[in-house]
Design a protein that fits this description.
By secondary structure, the protein is an all-alpha fold. The chain contains five helices and no strands. It has helices at residues 3-25, 40-54, 86-105, 109-113, 127-151.
């Protein structure tokens, strides 16, 4: 494992910790609520589902329903009030965090600079672009969740 993998593992650890903290600080009654399309439960599941998707290295591996019974690609089709529970999303998060740790720790620095070809081309040209895109995506939505938690009277998510 190289220096890039080491750095990314640490930054992802912090992002996962922030998401876990946000979920812990979300009041149960707020989990299924929020701005339409940006409900806390929906966004938390979306963050983890997208990370699961981007951690596949190739788009040829189809998305499968999670242990919650929901395909991550369909979370925006689910009506409010029907999102997976916090405990289910946390379990999915821990599973996906483990996959990312393995995905990153198996890489040398040269791999991150290599072209990802036609896989996830909207994220950039290299595998490093893919990793950074996913990390930025996570942080964007953790910010959305944090705002909604504070608007419902909860405490701000700790910056890690």
């Amino acid at each position: 494992m190289g220096a890039i993998a080491d750095s990314l593992i640490e930054q992802y650890r912090r992002a996962w910790a922030m998401l876990a903290d946000a979920m812990d600080k979300c009041q149960d009654e707020a989990w299924q609520k929020g701005t339409e399309g940006l409900e806390i439960g929906r966004l938390a599941f979306h963050i983890v589902g997208a990370a699961d998707f981007y951690g596949r290295e190739t788009m040829s591996v189809p998305l499968e329903p999670t242990h919650c019974g929901i395909n991550p690609g369909t979370i925006f089709e689910i009506p409010p009030g029907s999102f997976p529970s916090k405990s289910d999303v946390k379990a999915f998060m821990m599973e996906t965090e483990g996959k990312w740790n393995t995905f990153l720790s198996d890489r040398e620095d040269s791999w991150f600079a290599s072209s990802q070809g036609n896989n996830f081309k909207w994220t950039g040209l290299t595998y490093l672009d893919l990793c950074l895109y996913n990390l930025r995506h996570m942080m964007e939505h953790i910010g959305h969740i944090d705002v909604q938690i504070r608007q419902t009277g909860g405490d701000a998510t700790d910056w890690m």
